[in-house]
Structures are given as C-alpha cells and as structure tokens.
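FAQ
Q: What does a multi-component entry look like?
A: The components come first, one per line:
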Amino acid sequence: MTRLTAWFSEGRSTGKHTLPFVVILLGVTILASAANLLLPADSVFYVSTYTITLLGKYLCYAMLALAVDIIWGYCGILSLGHGAFFALGGYAMGMYLMRQIGDRGVYGNPLLPDFMVFLDWKELPWFWLGMDQFWFAMLMAVFIPGLLAFVFGWLAFRSRVTGVYLSIMTQALTYALLLAFFRNEMGFGGNNGLTDFKEILGFNLQADSTRVALFLITAILLAVIFVISQKILSSRLGKVVLAIRDSESRSRFIGYRTDRYKVWLFVYSAVIAGIAGALYVPQVGIINPGEFSPINSIEMVIWVAVGGRGTLIGAVIGALLVNYAKTRFTAIMPDAWLFALGAMFVLVTLYLPKGLMGLYGQLKAKRNSVTKKESQA
Amino acid sequence: MRRITFRHCIALCCCLFGLFSLSTHAAESVSLDPLLAELGEAKIKDIEPILVRIEAVSDETVLPLLRTLLNGNLYYIKAEKKVIGEFETNGETYYKDVFTDEINAGIDKRDVDKIRVNNNLRGYLRNAIARIQLTSKSPSVRENAVRELLSKLDDSTVAALERLYPYESNKKVKEAMGLALAMNTASQTELAPSNRIAAIEKLSSSLENDVRNLLTTLTRDDNTAVVTAANIALEKIAQRANRFAFVDQLFFGLSLGSVLLLASIGLAITFGVMGVINMAHGEMIMLGAYTTYVVQLMMPNYIDYSIWVAIPAAFLVSGLMGVLIERLVICRLHGRPLETLLATFGISLILQQLVRTIFSPLNRQVSTPSWMSGSWEINPVLSLTLNRLYILAFALLVFIVLVIVLKKTSLGLNVRAVSQNRNMAKAMGVKTNWVDAMTFGLGSGIAGIAGVALSQLTNVGPNLGQSYIIDSFMVVVFGGVGNLLGTLVAAFTLGIATKFLEPTTGAVLAAILVLVFIILFIQKRPKGLFPQKGRAAE
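Then the predicted structure of the entire assembly, as tokens:
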C-alpha cells in the first residue's frame, strides 16, 4: 500500500493530488451509480438518471480539458481546435451507433442509415465500411484524431509555427472541418449529424443500467488517463516538455529535437480528446457539426484557464465548475450566460493567471508579503 | 414565316399616318374620344382593330391608357361614354382619368364596366407601347423600347423600325434598331441566302439572348449555307460571352477581395503592426454595421445621405470602444499574446450578447441608398452591381488613406517606432501608452468603417463579426504580418481564388479548399507572402 502511495505521488509537487483525486472521483462515481440503481426513486438520496448522464457529460468535458491542459499548460501550445479531435472521436462512435440501428430506422433499410436513404444513396460509402464492428470504430475514434494531429503537428511544428499563429491555424482547421461536415455530400448526416441511436454492444442506450455503466466507464478512463498523463509529465520526457514551454530555442540548442516532442505530445492530447468524444456521444445521444464550431474549442480553453493551467487537477476542476455554472445559468437566465462566460475570460486572464489552483498560492504570497512588510516596519 | 401581304401594307400605311400625326397632336386628342367609346362597347375579339386605330392617331400621351389597359384596370362608364382607370393606394380603390390624373370621386363600382383583355391583347399592347416609345424624346427610352421588341418582331413592329431607322440620330439606338432589322432579315426564308447570311454575320456581334435564340432556330434552317453561318455566329457569340463571364467572375472575386480587405485591414494594424491579437475585431465590424442601422433609424427621410453620417459615426463608435478595450484590458496583458487572445475573445462574447440584448438576436434591415442600388449594365451578359463597385472603390480608398496615415503623419511615425522597438521609442520620448491606445483605436475604427460597407452587402446581426474573424486573420497571416501591402495582395488573391473555385467545387468546398491552402502555405512560409525584413523582423 505504501508503495502504491509512493507510486502515485512520485510526481513530487504536482503529483500530490493524484491519489486523493482518483479516490474521490471513483468514490463519488460509485456512490452516485449505486444511488441510482439500488435506491427507490422516491428516496432522498436517489440520483436521477438525468443527473447521471449530466455527470457523465461533465466527466467527458473534464477529459477534454485534460487534453487541452497537457499541451497548453505543459507545453505552451494553445490549440483553439481541440473541438475538432473531440468531434472526430464522437463521429467515429456515432457511425458505429448508426450502424447498430440496422433496419429499425424510419426507412427500415438494413444497411444504410436513414439520412443516406433520404439522399437516395444506393450503397455505403467506403469510409463507413467496418464501422459496424465496435473494436474497429473505437480504433478509428483514436486513430483519426491522432492521425490528423500528427499530420497537422508534423507540418506546423517542423516549420516552427508557434504562438498566436499556431492558435489561429488550429482555429482555421476546426472551422474548415465545420464547413465540411455541414455538407450533405460528405456522408456524415450533414446539418443534422448522427442521432436516434438505439443500442451499444446490444445494450439499450435508454436503459438506466447502460447509462450508469457508461458513466462508470467514463470515470474509470478519466482516472486512468489522469494517472498516465501525470506519469508522463513527471517523467524525464515531461521535464523536456516543460523546458520547451519555458524556452523552446534554448532547449533546441541544448540538443533536444523539440519539434518531435511537441508532435507526439500533440498526438497524445488529440487521442485523449478523441476518446472523450467517443464517450460523450452515447451519453448525449447526438453528434452534429456544431461540435466543430470554433467557439466550442475556445470554451475548452477557458475551462482550463479557470481551473489553472499547468496542473492536471486544475483542468478537471475547471471543466466541472464551468460546466456546472453553464447548466445552472442557462436554466435560470439564458441570456446572462454569455455575459458571464465573457467576463470569466477577461477576469481570469487579468486577475487569475494561474486559475483557481493558483489562487491559494497567490493569497499565500500576498499574506507573506504583508507579514514581511509588518515585520520590517 | 412572314409574308409581305396586304395587311402588312395597311399596317405600314397606318404607321406612316402615325408619323404624320405626330405634328398635329392637338387635333388627335379630340378625335380619340369616339375611339375610346368604341373600345368600351367592343367585344374582346374586336378590341385589337380598335387599338390599331388608336395607335395610329396618337403619340406618347396615350401610353398611360395602354398601360392601364394592359394591367386590366381600365373601366368604361357607360352613361358618360368615357373610359376611366381604377387605382388603389393603401387598400382603397378610386377612379381617375388616365390622361389628366383627375380623381373622379362621384363614380361607384356599379357605374362602370371593366374592359377585359386576354393574353393575345396583352402581347399586342406590350408591342404597341414599345412602338410608341420608339418615338420618345429620350434616347434611353427608345433603346429600351427596341430591346423590348427584339423578342417579338411582328410585321407592324418591323415596319415601324424600318420607317424610323434612317432618321435615328442616336448611335446606340440606331445600332439596336439595325440589330432588330437584321434579325428580321435573317429569319425571312424567302429572301436570298446571301442577304440572310450578311444579316447573320451582323448578328454575331450581339450578345442579346433573343439573337442567340434566333440563331439557334436558324441552325435548323433548310438552307445549308445559312446553317453554317448561324453556327459560326453562335460560336463567335459564345466566345465573347465566355470572355465576359470571365470578367464577371473576376469582378465578383474583386468584390469578395474588397470585403476581405475591409474586414482585415484594421486587423493588419492591431495584429500586424502592434502585434496585439484582437479576437473582438469582428465585433468592431459588427458595431460599425449597427451604427449604420441606428443612423438610418435617426434620419429615415435622408437615407441617401445617411451613409455620409454613418461612416464617421461608425469610426468613432468602434474606435472609442477600441480605445476603451485597450486601456482596460489589453495594456495590462502586454507581452502575453495568448492571454490577450483569450481576454479579447471574452470581450467579443460580451459585445455580441450586449447587441443581442439591445437590438434582439434577429437580423436588422439596413437600406441601401438609392444612388448605390441598381447595376451598371455594360452589355446583356455583363452587368456590375453598383453597391459592390462602390465598396470596391471604398476599400481601396480606405487602404490608401491608411497607408498615408502610417507613412506620412507623426502618429504613423510613432506607431512604427513603437512597433519596431518599444524601449528605444520610449527612451526617445514617445508616449508609448498613448500610441498604443491610438493605434488600437485606429484599427478598431477602420473595422467600424468596414461594418458600414458590409451592412450594404449582408445581414446585420449579432453574428456578423464572427463570420469574418477567421477569414480576416487568414488574410493578415497569408499576406505577412506587419505588411499592409501584403494584406492588400492577400485579400484580393483569396477573394479571386474563392470565386474562381466556386463554379467547379461549390461555395462551401471552395471556402474549405482556400482554408486548407492557407494552412499548408503557412507551414511552408510561416511569415506569409511578404515577410518583414531587417530590423522590423523580430
């Protein structure tokens, strides 16, 4: 047990949150699941399936925030296009779920999804082949975002496109994909996207048990990814990544191939985003081109900024808090949400450069300086 | 098939008489009354001969009568043996004299009978109206009348044209008349083939649709020489039409380029020269467009002049907002570009929502001043819309003014000094804070002006700015940061490329291809088309 604790907290200062985080995350998840499945609906402690799904959605966002934080907080690459990787993973899952509908669609075509029948297509496009196999679809959910990230990153980092330029390029990338997926001819359902899913691996998607299972899987995967990322970032490789963030040219002169580190970290981050997307789609029941919109991608950045970049736990907390606030705000005062979000962007960047996680440090520093001044006086 | 018949001769006589009657107008208006009474009494099949007689004895003054009849609004008062027009304004019907516009209030629906017209008569009336207009004093009315007649040349029209052709003094009208007559000659099968081929050759210089239709019919003619001539003429026309289609496409490309230039030129200053990334730039454009809307609301009776008020107003509104943003937010984030990006993005969300709260999320209608609407018709296949033409000129003007401001004024000198070496400029006594605020205000103000121009082309809504922000950044990055000329070249290159891709790929795919191209281009040349050299570069 002590060895396990030691393994968890190996990352020194940044790693000290890992074990409590994993325990709390899994503990809450299991309690909520049990409360949903075991307790009667009129019990005080009953957790509705709606809440379970909502929590599952938040956890997917948390995973996505983790992905953004890994490259932004640790490597200084501000990607405004991570929504693209998330949506691509989501589309891979959506295609699998679409194929699972089979002949239960409105048009009852056993092979073609409804929107293809509607467009009068006669056969399945080549990129839909194999998507009826769960393992293949899941492979694609990580492979396609990873491939895109590799190609984009390889081109961008090798020619040393950095900073604001890179941010704008990633935004253009997701914008181009948004336009492309809106086209009906692309074969991804156009404007409406993919929806009306029935079941996953034979389990009914509407059933409470399936929802709870998806929620549990999301939580476990989040914990696993969290621990792996923590390990990677506190390893030697992580140190190089931090060095690149703080001074890229100096790291390059020391002899590190900084572009390769950046490319692989970018791919790793994109893969996490793809997994988050694949988990997100069965829980919310729809994927459409709106997920590619640049504003979504930029919202992810603010989750990380609010929580505190450069700390994995901060990204997760930021995603949970901001999304909870969004749910509450849009329910009570829908108009005020964009004001609040906008103000959050401005205030966090101006006054909380290290986010909520840095707030404690900021306060402590202030108190120290005050006491110092007093002692001097 | 048209034969020179007895009827033809009569029509010719009538027309000659009509020409003669021009000079003796006073007598005719009296003699019209019995004809009108006859018109009122006539059955529908007897109306045409009466109209022939009316046309024969009248001039332009009869046009209101014919037009009213064409619209089916001409009524006959049996008791007074007079005709009267029925008009409607604001849902109220009333009767008035078609010649004098005098309202006849004493008339009730029961006192009048409608003079009915059928499709045949309507066709005849349209021709008659055009024929009468051929003698109008204004050359443009005459020219339009001839073009109107091209598609429906009948015997009486041809006769009228032949009669008027030698006396026509205006070159353009004469050309059009010659074209109509050539069309007639070419279609007469009983004429000698050599005459017809000569006429067809004459037709090959025209781009009119009717000419093309006629030539297409002629390619099925019995005479092989005529068929060959028609085919050659058609090909010649097609080649010319293609050339003009190219010019048309080029114009649309230039127009899109001018829009991109306007949208991105402010950014070229704030991002390019100052190095501050302003994600709220699109919202500055939006504010300018809304300023135009508000200005028009305040002066609804002077829409034509509202633009001249809107341009400075939009510059001030967006410019002041820019200064405010710079002072409150951006100056505190100096040297932290990614944070600036996030903070200004937050500002853009707030501004959008603000506009949504004040003006509602629906699109607002901005009206186009009358002098900007319409189009400049160069020939039948090429017409350039005036508002796009004006905006193209306006974009270039703004660009030139901006270059002059940056190169020739002391503000420009300070801006360049600060952007090249902030500390040195400070040491030389330049108030860098003030210069930053002014530069940002200038860039934002120009975005506001762009909003005025865009309000004439697209819908004015809270999302107006969003749709341009990515494109504007692409233009600036593609052209090379810190280089105004690069922005100009990039804007027009991208505009023209998009418009030339569109016919083959469709609008959306063209936009995607251009984006992908820029992404790849930036990988190859990270500093854009015109990278900065010397001290200005880093």
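Q: Is there any commentary attached?
A: Sometimes. For this entry: The first helix of chain B runs from residue 6 to 21.
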